[in-house]
Design goal:
single chain, alpha/beta, UDP-N-acetylmuramoyl-L-alanine:D-glutamate ligase, 6-stranded mixed sheet, 3-stranded antiparallel sheet, 37% helix, globular
Length: 271
């Protein structure tokens, strides 16, 4: 039977993030991708030009259309704009109880534009956190959720502990540390996981410097992780394989040609 994963995320017409990126990742793992759009965005790796949320009634109808027809094996949650969307989605998660729920708590775009509503973030995600198999914030998002600044590996571990204390329903917490190495010039990246038994797992990798910011790595990471978990791979192994998968994509990146001088690049490698 073909596995099915629902991506609940924004639409990025540039193909670098959101449901378009998730669909490519799911296809790579021979998984049937489903989607429910939260926000329409007009963006490219350099800029977010406009953000238009879908109406609440339409968002609810999207979820109902998917869950009422398909047996959903996993849900990958990306951009949730506000409290209304969080509450609507949480009702469907409660009713249909998917086995795997991966939450990538998106707040800001690669270009620096706030995507989720500032008012209430990250509090409005709390109704979703209790269903999370794992959440995958980057440093900025982990700082907002934990309420502390993060400057190094010890800060990442402390933030994970605080997030666990604040949100005991979250089974596993992964914090992606690439932003620390960017600021410090560190040649290594540390991504950490705090599992359901309060055991830390640390993945150390060489920083791959391309001289440009990369658009879509967070989406690729969470979509890959959701795919592997849906296939029944243990979280620790899925974490390692996801790290390898994203690193391989970055190493194979190719710039999409255009008539401008790009400051950022897409995930367009061998997906």
């Amino acid at each position: 039977m073909t596995l099915k994963i629902l991506s609940v995320a924004g639409f990025d017409g540039s193909g670098g993030a959101g449901i378009t990126s998730d669909a490519k990742i799911f296809s790579k793992f021979k998984i049937f991708g489903l989607s429910a759009i939260t926000v329409m965005t007009a963006q490219n790796p350099n800029n977010v030009y406009m953000i238009e949320p879908v109406p609440d009634a339409f968002f609810s109808a999207e979820l109902n259309a998917v869950f009422s027809y398909f047996s959903v094996d996993a849900v990958k949650i990306g951009l949730i704009l506000n409290e209304n969307q969080s509450l609507i989605l949480s009702r469907f998660l409660k009713k249909y109880n998917p086995k795997i729920v991966v939450i990538d708590p998106i707040y800001v775009s690669t270009s620096g534009k706030a995507l989720a509503e500032k008012s209430g973030y990250p509090g409005f995600l709390i109704p979703l956190f209790k269903y999370a198999t794992v959440i995958t914030p980057n440093i900025k998002e982990a700082e907002l959720i934990s309420g502390i600044g993060i400057k190094d590996l010890n800060g990442m571990k402390l933030a994970a502990k605080i997030i666990r204390e604040k949100n005991p329903g979250i089974k596993n917490i992964i914090i992606k540390g690439s932003h620390i190495s960017e600021k410090s010039g560190e040649k290594k990246i540390f991504n950490i996981m705090l599992d359901s038994k309060n055991k830390f797992f640390i993945f150390e990798n060489k920083r791959l410097s391309l001289g440009k910011e990369i658009h879509g790595t967070g989406c690729a990471f969470s979509a890959c992780l959701a795919s592997l978990l849906a296939k029944g791979i243990k979280l620790e192994d899925a974490f390692i394989e996801t790290e390898k998968f994203v690193s391989k994509i970055i190493r194979g990146l190719k710039k999409i040609p255009d008539n401008t001088t790009e400051k950022k690049i897409y995930i367009t490698g061998n997906i």
